[in-house]
Amino acid sequence: MSSGSGSGAFCPRCGDPIERPPEVDLPAGVDGAGGRVDADAVLCDECYLDAFDLVDAPERIEVRVCSRCGAVHRGNRWVDVDARDYTDVAVEETADRLAVHVDADEVEWGVEPEQVDENAIRMHCLFTGVVRGTPVSEEVTVPVYVARETCDRCGRIAGDYYASIVQVRAADRTPTSEEADRAVEIAEAYVAEREATGDREAFITETAWTDDGVDLKLSNNTLGEGVAQRVVRELGGEVSEAPTLVTEDAEGEEVYRVTFTVRLPPFTPGDVVNLDDGDGPVLVTSARGNLKGRRLATGDRYEADVEDGIAPDARKIADRADAEHTTLVAVEDDHAVQVLDPDTYESTTVPRPDYLDPDAEAVPVVKHRRGLHVLPEE
């Protein structure tokens, strides 16, 4: 035991006097209120630091990752991390599992990962801090193992699980390839939005193009309804639902699979339709809500009555895709012009809509059984 002046307190381990403020100069293990205190608190600095562990580290860490989507299992759920290299994940998991002693101040740490193989990483961690005014440091090595498995979501997708179907069809016609492709894009964008909010139960199991349109199998009925409504919002039409009982859950509640059928409008923008109302054909510009377009004889705006909606009594007679540019021969008056018939090359008098440019050399025209009409430029 060394000699020297002090506060009258001695280290119970080595017997050296301890310099300590009078207010804590108490018998070992007793605080001022008669309660118990940490026995290490009455040790001298040398004995305290000899037994001091700056860091409490686990012997090993196992990280569960999905081999299909890269999600990491944390707590009791899977979390998307969008990682190909799991080194950053290993660093984060290591940081969460290491515990630094509460008595240490000014703690800093660094880590140097060592990739042992595809599924093993050694994390070399160096910690520094200050304890009782003394700089201390400690190095620990923690092995991290990557356990590759399949998350619940990917397991369902691999098992072709689905709870709803969205069928994209059209009234009195087949959806165009552009409409079918756009419907799929709308569905994929909506699912991506849900995934971005952390919804791992949102996914498309299958997309199938058929002779009648396109079918999408989705993970739940809420997702199916959302996709169907968004397709109608952009492309027009209406949605019908057909539930089918498939099973009962653990509580005995009936579980339904719902088929949402999107029925697109009978006409699409670019169609030329005849309404048989005496005012001439209409170039359709929109089929959402109710049919809208322009009269080819006058250029006047057309909008179907609310009760007629998207399907007034009309029939398609041509398509903008059928239009050809032909020579504008002459302007006869405010209501008529002469153009060359694109088939016979004869000068033909046709109605003059207000969108026609009288100074144009050529104009787009569409020819149908009722004659020729000038179209607006796209």
Helix percent reads: 10-25%
Oligomeric assembly: single chain
Task: Look at the structure and give the mean pLDDT.
Answer: 82
Number of domains: 4
The strand line-up of the biggest sheet is: 12-13-11-15-14
Please count the helical segments.
5
The total strand number stands at 25
Order of helices and strands: EEHEEEEHEEEEHEHEEHEEEEEEEEEEEE
Task: Classify the secondary structure makeup into a structural class.
Answer: alpha+beta
What sort of overall outline do the alpha carbons produce when their principal axes are compared? elongated
Distance between the termini: 101 Å
Features:
five-stranded antiparallel sheet; 378 residues; disordered N terminus; alpha+beta; five-stranded mixed sheet; 4 domains
